[in-house]
Specification:
This protein is mainly beta and about 550 residues long. The protein has two helices and 26 strands.
């Protein structure tokens, strides 16, 4: 056993001796006898939970320094333009135009106008038109001419005040070419009738709505008419109007109007009317309601008329239904009656009022590609002017006014249709049923009238092609033997167009009455047959 213990102690002794002997080894050389291997022992994980500090509930004053805000900042408005889009070509504006043409039968058309302005201080226009026709090769003395001229302007003063002035003059000539006997013949001077009318008017008004949403207008008008036979008529109309807007869409209006007329042939006649017309119109998204009245006075006789209309928007602007009641005193003056029938002979007749009581209802709308209005109405026209034939000792057909109370049931319709780009179709139709009180029928007034037109624009606006069809039924009248009858109906077909060769110069052509209808609108006065006119136009 001792020998074994000695053997076990021998390696330890040798290891200690070796350590002692290494002190003498050189420091530059190190021999690695065994790799050094270090490992961490496994240990348990300690979880630490975070916690928030306690809230500080003490109140401390806070001081803020806010810089002063500038009251006004001037900067240029930004310019906006769609990216990658071509700018729309600006439509050129022309101040003036001129039109000159001639045709067959011998006719001449001349028209010119020019508008001018000086910024926001002044604007005005001048206009003139001449139209003459000589178809005596077909019908003796079937000739006429019209001359019309107008000068108007607006001056814009301070304090939102504006003044308008108008001066007009017309000189028209017709001839009585309706003869009772084909063998009769007259010199043009023997059957001539001239109408010379001088118009002057003005208006003082606010050019922009005032701060209190109030509009006002004072508008006097005066005309003097003279004819070839020494008849004279003067008319003076003074119109005072004020409108107050509530919430910028509900207007309250008041109009005071005086309308004085004096006619002189062998004796003098006066026809003076005074009107008071208040109204209020309420607008909402689906409803429009107008409530008003028309209070008229003539020769100490006072008349009260309604002025009411209700419109309901069933489907926006596309479908709207409406109904209303209106009334008025309408003058039958020498001027108004000769504009309707230039072959009138008023001597021995009177100028008078027609009282209209009108009730109507219908549907209207605008769907963009189509706009329409259709209505049915009932009117009672007391003292309505009708036009009956009368015959001179020389054998010339003339007409005179006769008055009667007439009940009228009417059906009216208008439509504007745009089926494709650049094509516009329009049509109007009116049919009336007259029930007279004393007269046999409504002399000289058509029961059916229709007017249908179409226009197509092509070549980027350089050319326009148009067509029209006018229809009217037969006109009731007495013949020279005292027998009632009616003339032929009218079917008038027209085509035409215009084309601009350059920016400023163009040409036009119109062919009228293609069917050569010779209907007598007034008994023994046939209209002109097929005719055409061509000429040049200019804009500048």
């Amino acid at each position: 056993m001792r020998l074994q213990h000695k053997l076990l102690l021998l390696p330890a002794f040798l290891f200690a001796a070796a350590l002692h002997a290494q002190k003498e080894l050189p420091t530059e050389t190190v021999d690695v006898v065994k790799d050094f291997d270090v490992r961490l022992m496994e240990s348990s994980k300690i979880d630490v939970l975070p916690s928030l500090p306690k809230l500080d509930t003490t109140t401390k004053p806070q001081n803020y320094l806010v810089p002063a805000r500038p009251l006004a900042v001037s900067y240029d408005a930004p310019k906006m333009r769609p990216i990658a889009m071509r700018a729309v070509k600006k439509e050129e504006i022309y101040n003036g135009f001129a039109k000159l043409g001639g045709g067959v039968p011998t006719s001449l058309w001349g028209e010119a106008g020019y508008g001018f302005a000086a910024k926001e201080k002044f604007d005005g226009k001048v206009w003139f038109r001449h139209h003459s026709l000589n178809a005596t090769k077909a019908v003796e003395n079937q000739r006429m001419f019209n001359n019309d001229a107008l000068v108007s302007g607006n001056i814009y003063l301070q304090n939102n005040l504006a003044v308008e002035a108008k001066v007009g003059y017309s000189y028209d000539r017709v001839h009585f070419y309706g003869y009772n006997d084909d063998s009769l013949s007259f010199e043009p001077e023997a059957v001539r009738q001239d109408f010379k009318i001088f118009d002057i008017g003005g208006r003082v008004y606010n050019s922009k709505r005032t701060e209190s949403d109030l509009n006002y207008s004072v508008a006097p008008k005066l005309y003097v008419l003279n004819d070839f036979y020494g008849n004279k008529e003067t008319g003076f109309d003074l119109n005072l109007t004020a409108s107050k807007w509530f919430a910028e869409k509900h207007p309250l209006r008041l109009t005071i109007r005086t309308d004085f007329t004096k006619f002189t042939d062998t004796v003098s006649q006066s026809l003076n009317n005074i009107y008071l017309q208040p109204s209020f119109t309420f607008h909402a998204d689906f409803i429009k309601l107008k409530i008003g009245g028309n209070f008229a006075s003539n020769r100490d006789v006072f008349s009260i008329f309604p002025d009411c209309e209700l419109t309901l928007r069933v489907f926006g602007d596309g479908i709207q239904i409406f109904a209303g009641a209106t009334g008025d005193l309408r003058k039958n003056t020498y001027r108004s009656m000769t504009e309707y029938n230039p072959y009138l002979q008023i001597r021995g007749s009177e100028i008078a009022n027609t009282r209209f009581d009108n009730y109507f209802g219908g549907v209207k709308g605008n769907l963009g590609w189509i706009e329409y209005n259709g209505q049915i109405g009932y009117s009672k026209a007391s003292n309505l002017a009708l036009y009956q034939t009368t015959f001179t000792n020389e054998g010339i057909t003339r007409f005179r006014p006769v008055y009667d109370t007439v009940k009228i049931v009417s059906l009216q319709g208008t439509i504007t249709f745009k089926p494709i780009k650049n094509l516009v179709l329009q049509g109007t139709y009116n049919q009336s049923v007259f029930t007279t009180t004393n007269e046999l029928t409504a002399w000289g007034i058509p029961e059916i009238e229709g007017n249908f037109t179409g226009a197509y624009t092509l070549l980027e606006g350089k050319a326009v092609i148009n067509a029209g069809l006018y229809l009217a039924d037969r006109i009731a009248r007495f013949d020279e033997n005292g027998r009632p009858g009616k003339d032929n109906a009218l079917v008038d077909l027209n085509i035409g167009g215009n084309y601009y060769f350059s920016k400023n110069i163009g040409a036009f052509l119109s062919i009228n009455n293609l069917l050569n209808n010779r209907r007598e609108r007034w008994y023994q006065y046939p209209i002109v047959g097929t005719n055409f006119m061509a000429g040049i136009t200019a804009r500048f």
